Amino acid sequence: MGYIELARCATAAVAGTGIQAAPGSSATITAWSSENNNDSAGRGNRYKRLAVGAYSSHVSATDGLKFEEKINSTWRTLVTYTLAATTYTKYYIATSAPAVRVRYVNSANVLTEFDLVVLGDTEERTAA
């Protein structure tokens, strides 16, 4: 089946599309959470892998892109990345928990450009 777009963020929200706005100075957004995804039967279990493409006009906070999983009631950080300024980057992460989410933590900068897309993959894959 391939990748399914789960969420998109942009510099500004786009009414009626589900595209959410970039976080403000020092703010955190949840780009996507399987707990909020009504179309995801089995929630996080549905996706074997997540892919995130990200571009930001400014560097993120330290460990600004967070992949988190929840087995019981506590979110646990799976892996984090610090996004560089003005560099489009892709991140791939294998998932297996019942609930999964992707969060972005902004630095103190005001973002003038921001694009982030979260893709889910239901297939087992060994390489990017």
Report on this structure.
The model has no long low-confidence stretch (mean pLDDT 89). The chain is globular. The chain is mainly beta and 128 residues long. The chain is built from no helices and nine strands. The protein has strands at 3-10, 20-21, 28-33, 49-56, 60-70, 75-81, 89-94, 99-106, 114-121. The strands form two sheets. The chain has a five-stranded mixed sheet, with no helix packed on it. It has a single domain (3-121), classed as Jelly Rolls, CATH 2.60.120.
Task: Outline the secondary-structure elements.
Layout: E1 3-10, E2 20-21, E3 28-33, E4 49-56, E5 60-70, E6 75-81, E7 89-94, E8 99-106, E9 114-121
Parallel strand pairs: 1-2
Antiparallel strand pairs: 1-9, 3-8, 4-7, 4-9, 5-6, 5-8
Secondary structure class reads: mainly beta
Distance between the termini: 15 Å
CATH domain fold name:
Jelly Rolls
Work out the helix count: 0
What's the number of structural domains? 1
Rg calculated over all Cα atoms? 14 Å
Quick overview:
With 128 residues, this protein is mainly β. 0% of the residues lie in helices and 50% in strands.
